TrEMBL record:
Organism: Boletus edulis BED1
The organism's place on the tree of life at top rank: Eukaryota
InterPro entries from the UniProt entry: HNH_nuc (IPR003615)
One Pfam assignment: HNH_2
Residues in HNH nuclease domain copies: 42-113
Name of the molecule in the record: HNH nuclease domain-containing protein
């Protein structure tokens, strides 16, 4: 790894992230990835299950098997904040809320989530060319870089390196649209203010339910 931090545009300080997380792992991810006062949504497809005990939405780690020693090494190299929570399993900025299907895709290295500094968006890339992921390819997912507990963009670089190692037959530069748009469900659900590119977590701002 570069000894002075991640590539330009991916550092936690450049992205305006706070030095420390505001909450524990579980509480932080639930707050960040929940909208309109509801339980967490899958950041990729938008599936939401309020009855979390059914296990439809699960919390997972960007780097699931990172050791505390490696986590501290990332702190030393400024890839993450030196004040990050102790251990990779305690900091919400190493976490995601995903449905079962997309957790499998992410943890099995079928897809990439890449941060685009110029757009300040996290984008899903269907690196394995999986037909089930194609509708989400090249579109921004429901992660807000402006949130205090936003995931570290640098951790997705390390995840992408693993994906490329598991899929050496795939092209180095998969085709991605020049114009990055939000996932369809984010726009149709009114989760984002398109003028400001900000997400809504306030129950009072939930769009009215359309009668059928």
């Amino acid at each position: 790894l570069p000894l002075n931090g991640p590539p330009p545009g991916y550092g936690w300080e450049e992205c305006g992230m706070s030095a420390s997380a505001s909450r524990s792992f579980r509480t932080g991810v639930h707050r960040r990835d929940g909208f309109f006062g509801q339980a967490a949504y899958c950041a990729i497809c938008g599936h939401c299950m309020l009855e979390e005990y059914l296990g439809v939405i699960q919390l997972c780690y960007i780097l699931k098997d990172l050791s505390p020693l490696a986590w501290n090494r990332l702190k030393d190299l400024n890839w993450i904040s030196p004040q990050a929570n102790d251990g990779p399993r305690h900091d919400p900025r190493n976490g995601l809320a995903l449905c079962l299907n997309h957790r499998d895709s992410f943890e099995n290295y079928d897809c990439i989530i890449r941060y685009f500094p110029e757009n300040r968006k996290f984008v899903l890339i269907n690196y394995s060319d999986d037909p089930d992921l194609q509708e989400f390819h090249g579109k921004a997912i429901a992660l807000d870089i402006n949130d205090r507990d936003a995931p570290y963009p640098s951790l997705f670089i390390l995840h992408e390196m693993r994906v490329r190692g598991f899929q050496p037959e795939q092209p180095l530069d998969p085709a991605i649209p020049d114009n990055i748009t939000w996932q369809d469900w984010i726009l149709s659900g009114g989760l984002v203010n398109q003028d400001l590119d900000t997400f809504s977590h306030d129950p009072q701002s939930m769009p009215p339910i359309q009668s059928t």
